[in-house]
């Protein structure tokens, strides 16, 4: 944390190579919570390609300098300052030994070395290593590390670091030590150590080439029964990376460690991944199907970083998407393959739909606001603010477009060339793009704009059918619409947009496609390459006017503008062979209805829903040929946040009223169908987290949620109570509780109270489950006589609540501020006042978490005037009191 008044802006254009390089580092830790001593012995040499100059500028933060020695001799020519340590009068190659101290027990930022539940952990990405020792803490300085850990043996029996354990033993006074060597050079952000009372499950496997590997998942002793799924996910990840990309685990030993205090999801430290407990621990009693899927995805993500991130890393932090976009793409493909193999398109589509839904709800919103930035940002004040949906999720879409353009084989050729050229290096997004281009014999110069332009592109579509000539012309126009100023200033020209399209005949079948100039039809989905501002693609030999299926499988991260009629959308929902677009048709239909309803609600006009819309949803609900997982996704209405985003002026209360109206209408009109679906998909027998069983539970629990919307929710209350009592898994138990909370809005709070109390008692000793308990209450609907801000206020005083644990803070505060828009945006501004108070309180403890919360008001300019004014006041209050660079950057950009 730093208290600068006008924090410095770091620019991509200013990149310069380091003046010195570090070949090796030997770190010795004397681990004591109050004051840990770190002895750091580095072999340095002047970088022949770096800027000349005699000084060595090492970064350091929150450190106490003890001593400096050059080649073993005390060296007086140094100066410690706010940002680090300057050392002068140095030869071209030398050994520098620095001893310093830090205070892990006091470290509430969870960056650097800190204590959680009495154990030691580190988090070094992006710039935490400088809080452990003075260093060239930048990713293009890669060194070989040897680490010796010394600590009290009774308190810290387990001592872990990166790489291989080479020595361990006893020391006087009840202390012991362990020495670790990492054979691969790495940037400092991948350093890690863990020390404490932990236990592990282990597996020994043979990797593709036959070498034995030791795999471990380390947790606190009481969590050992929640590690199996993480271990299975790790083994599946290792197998998948071998099969799909020919990438093998390069270490003899690979460890995952769970920690309950963690700012993000997990961290890919070389050979020693450190995970938020939320993404490791899972057993049927405590984790939902979504939790199981998230564990699999995050274990995969961190494991895949071993090649995309660790073996090849980023030259500088502007290149963050080089590793993150690519690794998210890899984890998405892994999860899709685990769902449906690589051939079951309908099963794979479930994952695709979930990913696109998140992208559109959160990344599109980011791209429309004051924090909009390109996938490769041009500048930042605090790099921790750039671990964003844009860098991660839009970055993954950009990587996916290479695969869409070149096919899986072409993408693999590009990856192979990337590793051949750059293994062991710190490189840029351009290097990745060039490897893909060269391996496929293509010029991808224009494609760079996906990395440099912010804002969500829009593609407008016009079609014309000429029955005499049997020609069908599709004209695509790309533009950015009315986008945020932060995005506008980055836009320089048209993008290369892979636009996948199919044409559907009146019989509901795909039409074989033949473009003008081709001799015969080939395939039923074509990837058109849109490279100009406007282009027309003409299909010939088209017997009747078709219906276009646009942007199949969401082939590019854009918004498609095309005026389908409701009947056409209903037809696509029933017939499109592309499962993604089938879902998309239902979403478009619902979005259009909901926006119309919102306008009426805002004008206090009566609401009504066309029978044809109800009928379209009824067909999906009762279509047994569709998988339950797909039906569930198709029957969930677009979220309130997504809908508010689509409006010129967001009005959360009206959106909520509209969406609730439609849910109630679908519940009432289809009551018998929901009940039948509930019964049919209720399984007995042991819990299994398989895609099939997960799909049945999802659909059944959606039916329960709809039934809870009825004016008289007796059925829902009866079924939910029975389900709650009989549940053998958290998915069903939590869904039952959520349904009771929803039913309580009409039936009275007493309907949910017994289950709510039981849930707390039952899981009192399971922090991740108690997080759910807080979150469900923070996200519940309010009523005229029950404001959820009051519920949240009471829960803030609950003995189990603490601001210091990020998961807990997120479960209550973030759930309310970002997942309960109708209550958060109360007209009286009470939500905003609460937000300001919490941002300021968190800022003093943990700026990274505070900055995330700060972002929930960044779209303030897009709301109705009364709300806008109150939001601005809250932002100004925070701006006047905030201390950290992290929060300052967010609120200043919002107010600018
Ligand atoms: N590289 C990690 C994300 C991460 C980033 C920063 C952290 O601490 C500030 C922690 C984790 C990933 O992509 O999984
Ligand atoms: Zn990552």
TrEMBL record:
Annotated Peptidase M1 alanyl aminopeptidase C-terminal domain ranges read 567-896
CDD domains (alphabetical): M1_APN
Q: Which residues form the Peptidase M1 membrane alanine aminopeptidase domain?
A: 230-450
Question: In the Enzyme Commission scheme, what number(s) does this protein have?
Answer: 3.4.11.2
Q: Which reaction does it catalyse?
A: Release of an N-terminal amino acid, Xaa-|-Yaa- from a peptide, amide or arylamide. Xaa is preferably Ala, but may be most amino acids including Pro (slow action). When a terminal hydrophobic residue is followed by a prolyl residue, the two may be released as an intact Xaa-Pro dipeptide
Q: Write out the entry's keywords from A to Z.
A: Aminopeptidase, Hydrolase, Metal-binding, Metalloprotease, Protease, Zinc
Q: Name one GO molecular function term.
A: alanyl aminopeptidase activity
Which cofactors does the annotated protein need, by name? Zn(2+)
User: Which part of the chain is the Aminopeptidase N-like N-terminal domain?
Assistant: 120-190
Q: What class of enzyme is it?
A: hydrolase
**Every Peptidase M1 alanyl aminopeptidase Ig-like fold domain range:** 455-563
Write one Pfam family the protein is assigned to: DUF3458
What biological function has been recorded for the protein in this entry? Aminopeptidase N is involved in the degradation of intracellular peptides generated by protein breakdown during normal growth as well as in response to nutrient starvation.
Its family?
A: Belongs to the peptidase M1 family.
Q: What is this protein called?
A: Aminopeptidase N
Kindly list the organism's lineage. Bacteria, Pseudomonadati, Pseudomonadota, Betaproteobacteria, Burkholderiales
């Amino acid at each position: 944390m730093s208290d600068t008044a006008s924090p410095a802006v770091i620019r991509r254009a200013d990149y310069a190579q380091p003046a010195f390089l570090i070949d090796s580092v030997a770190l010795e830790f004397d681990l004591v919570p109050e004051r840990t001593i770190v002895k750091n012995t580095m072999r340095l040499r002047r970088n022949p390609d770096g800027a000349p100059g005699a000084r060595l500028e090492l970064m350091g933060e929150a450190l106490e300098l003890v001593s400096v020695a050059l080649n073993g001799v005390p060296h007086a020519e140094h100066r410690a300052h706010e940002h680090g340590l300057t050392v002068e009068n140095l030869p071209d190659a030398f050994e520098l030994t620095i001893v310093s101290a830090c205070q892990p027990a006091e470290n509430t930022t969870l960056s650097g070395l800190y204590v959680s539940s009495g154990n030691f952990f580190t988090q070094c990405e992006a710039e935490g290593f400088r809080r452990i020792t003075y260093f060239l803490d930048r990713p293009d300085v890669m060194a070989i590390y040897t680490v010796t850990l010394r600590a009290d043996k009774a308190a810290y029996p387990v001592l872990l670091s990166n790489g291989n354990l080479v020595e361990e033993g006893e020391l006087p006074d009840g202390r012991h030590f362990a020495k670790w060597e990492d054979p691969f050079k790495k940037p400092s952000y991948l350093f890690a150590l863990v020390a404490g009372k932990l236990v592990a499950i282990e597996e020994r496997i043979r990797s593709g080439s036959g070498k034995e590997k030791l795999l471990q998942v380390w947790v606190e002793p009481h969590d050992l029964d929640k590690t199996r799924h993480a271990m299975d996910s790790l083994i599946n990840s290792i197998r998948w990376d071998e099969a799909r990309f020919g990438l093998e685990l390069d270490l003899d030993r690979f460890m995952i460690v769970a920690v309950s205090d963690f700012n993000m999801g997990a961290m890919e430290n070389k050979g020693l991944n450190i995970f938020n407990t939320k993404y490791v621990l899972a057993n049927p009693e405590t984790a939902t199907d979504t939790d199981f899927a998230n564990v699999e995805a995050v274990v995969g993500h961190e494991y895949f970083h071993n090649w995309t991130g660790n073996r090849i890393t980023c030259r500088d932090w502007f290149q963050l998407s080089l590793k993150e976009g690519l690794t998210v793409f890899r984890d998405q493909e892994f999860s899709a393959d685990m769902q449906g193999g690589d051939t079951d398109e309908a099963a794979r589509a479930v994952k695709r739909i979930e990913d696109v839904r998140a992208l559109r709800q959160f990344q599109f919103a980011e791209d429309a606001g004051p924090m909009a930035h390109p996938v490769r940002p041009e500048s930042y004040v605090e790099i921790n603010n750039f671990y964003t949906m844009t860098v991660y999720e839009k970055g993954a879409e950009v990587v996916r477009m290479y695969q869409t353009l070149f096919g899986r084989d072409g993408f693999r050729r590009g990856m192979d060339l990337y590793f051949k050229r750059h293994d062991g290096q710190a490189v840029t997004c351009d290097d990745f793009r060039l490897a893909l281009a060269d391996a496929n014999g293509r010029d991808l110069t224009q494609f760079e704009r996906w990395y440099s332009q912010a804002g969500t592109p829009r593609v407008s579509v016009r079609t014309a059918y000429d029955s005499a000539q049997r020609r069908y012309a599709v004209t695509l126009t790309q533009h950015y619409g009315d986008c945020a100023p932060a995005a506008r200033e980055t836009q320089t020209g048209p993008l290369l947009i892979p636009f996948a399209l199919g044409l559907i005949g009146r019989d509901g079948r795909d039409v074989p496609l033949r473009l003008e100039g081709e001799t015969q039809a080939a395939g039923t989905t074509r990837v058109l390459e849109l490279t100009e501002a406007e282009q027309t693609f003409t299909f010939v030999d088209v017997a009747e006017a078709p219906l276009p299926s646009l942007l199949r499988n969401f082939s590019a991260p854009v918004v498609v503008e095309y005026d389908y009629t409701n009947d056409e959308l209903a037809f696509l929902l029933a017939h499109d062979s592309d499962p993604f677009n089938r879902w998309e048709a239902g979403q478009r239909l619902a979005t259009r209805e909901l926006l119309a309803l919102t306008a009426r609600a805002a004008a206090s006009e009566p609401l009504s829903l066309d029978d044809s819309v109800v009928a379209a949803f009824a067909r999906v609900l009762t279509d047994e040929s569709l998988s339950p997982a797909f039906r569930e996704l198709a029957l969930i209405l677009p979220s309130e946040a997504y809908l508010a985003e689509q409006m010129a002026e967001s009005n959360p209360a009206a959106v909520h009223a509209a969406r609730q109206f439609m849910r109630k209408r679908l519940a009432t009109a289809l009551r018998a169908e929901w009940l039948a679906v509930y019964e049919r998909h209720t399984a007995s027998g042991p819990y299994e987290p398989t895609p099939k069983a997960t799909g049945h539970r999802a659909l059944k629990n959606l039916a329960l949620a709809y039934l809870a919307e009825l004016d008289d929710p007796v059925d829902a209350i009866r079924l939910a109570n029975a389900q709650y009592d009989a549940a053998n898994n958290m998915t069903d138990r939590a869904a039952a509780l959520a349904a009771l909370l929803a039913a309580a809005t009409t039936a009275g709070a007493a309907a949910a109270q017994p289950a709510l109390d039981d849930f707390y008692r039952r899981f009192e000793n399971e922090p991740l489950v108690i997080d759910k308990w807080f979150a469900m209450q923070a996200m519940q609907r309010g009523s005229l006589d029950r404001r959820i801000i009051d519920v949240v206020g009471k829960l803030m005083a609950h003995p189990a609540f603490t601001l210091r644990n990020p998961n807990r803070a997120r479960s209550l505060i973030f759930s309310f501020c970002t997942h309960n828009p109708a209550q958060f945006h109360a007209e009286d501004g009470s939500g905003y006042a609460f937000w300001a108070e919490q941002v300021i309180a968190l800022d003093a403890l943990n700026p990274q978490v505070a900055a995330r919360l700060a972002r929930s008001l960044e779209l303030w300019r897009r709301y109705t005037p009364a709300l806008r004014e109150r939001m601005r006041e809250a932002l100004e209050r925070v701006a006047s009191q905030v201390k950290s660079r992290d929060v300052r950057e967010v609120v200043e950009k919002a107010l600018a």
